[in-house]
Design brief:
By secondary structure, this protein is an alpha/beta fold. It has helices spanning 28-43, 71-83, 99-106, 133-136, 142-151, 157-163, 173-186, 189-199, 201-222, 225-235, and strands at residues 4-9, 12-17, 49-54, 58-60, 88-92, 95-97, 109-112, 117-119, 155-156, 168-169. The longest helix is centred in the C-terminal third of the chain and has 22 residues, at 201-222.
Length: 244
């Protein structure tokens, strides 16, 4: 079974998340296959940039609670996106939840359409957006992060752009992406790699400093009684016991 469809056009390799059964959730299979695809892009001189997109109405639903990826593999995937010596551009026309926001935040440029929506749902499950904070918090508006991390509210593309999750909220995603991809095709490979290293330096430093601590926090939360109740309630489609 393939979780990622691939194609290429004039130096832009498209990686399309294609796991409709779980709304492109971060299963072990999807994380592993996407990581392998990015590694091939890194070594392919014919790839100038990567376009990350999705099938269906969901970009990524977050962690696959039934078949979760190894936490270390997920962190490695996020870092691979950030450190890839080629720009990674997200094309989003659907919903993004929890860990999927980490994947989105790791991308260099992100453009989304009006039908997309966003939510940090971790606090409602007894969890926290721990490891995904490494690519997100250096780029997000602090007040917006404070609100949406805590409340789990759903918000739209315009607010996501204001908060720093997106580069642009567009009525027509492909029209908005056209000049972006044209610009990347006109740039030299060396120029892109060096320029990306400048704009991602703070994010890389965050990974260096916080990976071990935040990974441990995430593991402890997932193993807690509260999180087990939250995940069970989610899978059973009911409110957890703490809802008042």
């Amino acid at each position: 079974m393939s979780y990622v469809k691939q194609s290429q056009d004039r130096g832009v390799r498209t990686l399309c998340l294609d796991s409709p059964a779980n709304r492109n959730a971060l299963s072990a299979g999807l994380v592993g296959e996407l990581g392998e695809a990015l590694a091939r892009c890194a070594g392919d001189q014919g790839v100038r940039a990567v376009l990350l997109t999705h099938t269906g109405t969901t970009f990524c639903a977050g962690a696959d609670l039934r078949s979760p990826a190894d936490p270390g593999a997920f962190v490695a995937l996020l870092r691979a996106v950030v450190e890839l010596p080629k720009p990674v551009v997200a094309r989003v026309t659907g919903h993004v939840r929890a860990g999927g926001l980490g994947l989105l935040g790791a991308c260099d440029i992100a453009v989304a359409g009006p039908d997309s929506s966003y939510a940090f749902t971790e606090s409602r499950l007894g969890l926290a957006p721990a490891v995904i904070s490494m690519p997100l918090l250096p780029r997000m508006d602090p007040r917006a992060a404070g609100r949406y991390y805590l409340t789990g509210e759903r918000f739209g593309a315009a607010e996501a752009a204001r908060a720093g999750l997106l580069t642009e909220a567009a009525d027509d995603v492909d029209t908005a992406l056209a000049p972006v991809l044209d610009g990347l095709r006109r740039a030299s490979p060396q120029g892109l790699a060096a320029s990306k290293a400048l704009v991602t330096a703070t994010v890389v430093e965050t990974f260096d400093r916080w990976t071990e601590d935040l990974s441990a926090r995430s593991a402890a939360l997932f193993a807690s009684a509260e999180a087990k109740e939250g995940v069970t309630a989610f899978l059973e489609r009911r409110d957890p016991v703490w809802v008042c």
